[in-house]
Amino acid sequence: MSLRTFLYSTPFHAWRLARHAPDDLVSVPADCWPGDADAGRLMLDGRLARFAEAVDLPAADWKTDALNPDMVEHLHGFAWLRDLRELGGDAARVLARDLVAGWIARHGRWDRTLWRADLIGERLANWLAHHDFLAGSADDEFQDALTLSVVLQTRHLSRDLGSAPAGRRRFRAVKGLVLGSAALDDDAMAATAFSGLEMAMAAEVAADGGHRSRAPASHLSVMRDLIEARNALRMTERGAPEALQPTILAMTAALRLWRHGDGGLALFNGATEGNRAEIEAVLAQAEANRKTPPDLPDTGYQRLVAGRSCVIADSGRPEALDGEAHAAPLAFEFSHGKQRIVVNCGSAPGDPRWHDALRASAAHSTLVIDDRNAAEVGADGAVGPRPADVSVDRKDAEGRSLVELSHDGYGETHGLVHHRRLFLEADGTDLRGEDRLVYTGAPGEQARDAAVRFHLHPRVRASLVQGGGTAILAPPSGPGWRLRADVPMALNDSVYFGPDGTLQRTSQIVLTLPLVAVRESGEATVRWSIRREDPK
Q1: Do residues 121 and 172 touch, judged by C-beta distance below 8 A?
Q2: Torsion angle in degrees (nearest 10) through CA of 42, 263, 268, 273
């Protein structure tokens, strides 16, 4: 036990937090995010849903030991309050109030896990944003207990803010302190929150607006936190950090780059497609009217758009410290209109059994050598040895786009560098690719073969024709597509966790490139194309 942990567990710390506690909250923000009435209705039936998982609501004693960590965070973060608010009615309000009162009675004093800085931040933000819903018609006993708990948690958070780890957890903690200090009108805590917000933005948001995790879902979460913090600061006379709104504007442009025509997110680095209503709300609250950029040079992504077609490609290094980083250099997704065609397998946030498998290179539409990851995925969620050099060259002319990418993730293991070219014709009906492996002369394992994978959206039916040399890709509506390659291809099973982390069965096309002679020849290349089928 560390000295800090020991001090937090003492009666002295509890006394210090409660000393001279104010009786009222000065200001509370309005919640600006949509809820899910169906999820609220499920809660009235005693069940709490999170992605593909649903669990029983906690009893009065709030024992949640049997839940997985993601569900524990969701439950104790209280984001589900907006689902009950969206449902509305006395029954929803009473249930929300009873659950908050039960939590205060059970966990109202410091706890190593549930009083973690980021979890306090999320809980405070949700309690304060739903204060009127919770306390509007409540008795004095509940209102006093709620106010005191807000005071205790905010004061503790102001002392423990530095413990929040990098990433979206840091922003959740800072957001909570911004809202808590505004509600209590406390200058000292507001200064701590102000400083924490400035440092987090400077450390974690790149010049192109991308969050350092390179993860669309984490990026969206951080944007929400910054918008909530900005809205709360506007209610005070202290102002906001000068960089806050420009950071939100830059992050808005980056978020737009990751959206397909259906309005959802591309599946990179732990993302699901996301909630379209939430994404639209974030873009609306950002107060930005910026165009979608063609690339994120610092964060490492490319976007090719022509006609109704869109290609989104990973052109950066996997983030070393982020537990959600995937080993997928040069992976891409392809959509036409609102239909996704080539995808990555996605993420299963509520199911840890799939966590490592979905982070593997083979779960993405990229090239994989000998079923080996292009970056090491550690058991603790971190990324180990990974590409040291990822290069990008892009040319746009007359509506056409060509990107040339490379990474050396297989340089140390096999002495090979992967080069990928993606070309999108001006009318969007012709996507051409080339994957080339170049032998560097470095030592390493002798490679057997490379698999170029094209994971398909579950709504796309695939069939091999012409003796297995061509694949027909048939969406449920709109034009069909023909995938051709100059090497053998196979139609294999795959999985997709796109919409909400729910498993869907799907297919993948796999091109096989023999590599037994690559050291003698110096390189090996596969060329492929995905062209729209003209109606007959």
Answers
A1: yes
A2: 20
Of 131, 116, 37, give the one whose Cα is nearest residue 84.
Answer: 37
Handedness of CA 308, 309, 312, 315 (dihedral sign): negative
Final residue before a domain boundary, out of 164, 190, 219:
164
- Per DSSP, the three-state class of 15 is helix
- Choose the final residue of a domain: 135, 164, 193: 164
User: Cβ distance 99 to 58 under 8 Å?
Assistant: yes
What is the DSSP-derived secondary structure letter of residue 265?
A: B
Determine phi and psi for 142, rounding to 5 degrees: -70, -45
458 lies in the same domain as 309:
yes
Residue 142's domain comprises 23-164
Q: Number of structural domains, the chain? A: 2
Q: Any alpha helices (H) in 363-438, and if so which ranges? A: 411-414
Please write the tens of the pLDDT for every residue from 194-253.
999 999 999 999 999 999 999 999 999 999 999 999 999 999 988 899 999 999 999 999
Per residue, what are the HEC states of 310-323? Answer: EEEEECCCCCCCCC
- The HSE-up count of residue 449 (CA atoms within 13 Å, CB side) is 10
Each residue of 78-121: pLDDT tens digit? 999 999 999 999 999 999 999 999 999 999 999 999 999 999 99
Cα–Cα distance, 352 to 468 (Å, whole number): 36
Give the span between the Cα atoms of 380 and 374, in whole angstroms: 18
